[in-house]
Write a structure and sequence with these properties.
By secondary structure, this protein is mainly alpha-helical. The chain has helices at about 5-20, 50-75, 85-90, 95-115, 125-135, 155-160, 175-185, and strands at about 25-30, 40-45, 140-145, 150. The longest helix has 30 residues, at about 50-75. The radius of gyration is 31 Å and the shape is elongated.
Length: about 200
């Protein structure tokens, strides 16, 4: 076997140190192929080291996914999310527990998208009559020259006062129902002076 060059020895030393850090015990040997070219042979034991590496990778991937979904849910809910704290909280969870959390958060996101993050409140029967009177029950209705919007003809100030954001007519119908129920619980039929009688 030809003598290794200084560059090859340096590469061998760096590779051996890296391999030792990843998997111990490991054997590293310098050899030459039939053309006289140097190559490095790693004797890394298979089994637990590889399994641990795959498990760590899966846990990191699931943790990253859980953090992304947590941020998305928080943005739909109220925007309050602390990713570092959340990551620290779930960092040592098992793969199975992370998968269960991800499934629950996805279901929560679907619910938040359906309701716009409005709380789960009872919808009084009186609101059905108000909605028919105000907009014909159309959640996309726009009236009053664009001032009143959605199924319950919210103005933007009233919509914001019950936690809504953006255009009421663009919000999911479930969110409009829930926010109207919040307004009705707070003020009765007074916000709808004509249709609330």
């Amino acid at each position: 076997m030809p003598h290794p060059t200084p560059l090859t020895l340096r590469r061998l030393a760096l590779t051996a140190a890296s391999t030792a850090a990843i998997a111990a015990p490991a054997t590293v040997a310098l050899a030459a192929d039939e053309n006289g070219l140097d190559y490095i042979h790693f004797g890394v034991p298979a089994g637990r080291i590889v399994e641990d590496g795959l498990e760590d990778h899966a846990r990191k991937t699931l943790t990253d996914r859980a953090v992304r979904l947590g941020r998305r849910a928080a943005n739909l809910r109220d925007g309050d999310f602390r990713p570092r704290r959340y990551r620290a909280h779930i960092d040592d969870w098992s793969i199975e527990r992370l998968q269960r959390r991800i499934t629950r958060v996805r279901a929560h996101i679907a619910d938040l998208e359906r309701t716009g993050g409005a709380p789960d409140v009872a919808i009084p029967a009186a609101l059905a009559g108000i909605a028919v009177c105000e907009s014909g029950g159309d959640p996309r209705a726009v009236g009053g020259g664009g001032l009143y919007r959605g199924k319950y003809q919210f103005d933007l100030g009233t919509w914001a006062s019950v936690g809504g954001s953006g255009d009421p007519a663009a919000a999911p119908e479930g969110e409009q129902d829930r926010r109207a129920a919040m307004l009705y619980a707070r003020s009765g039929a007074a916000p709808w002076p004509v249709c609330g009688r």
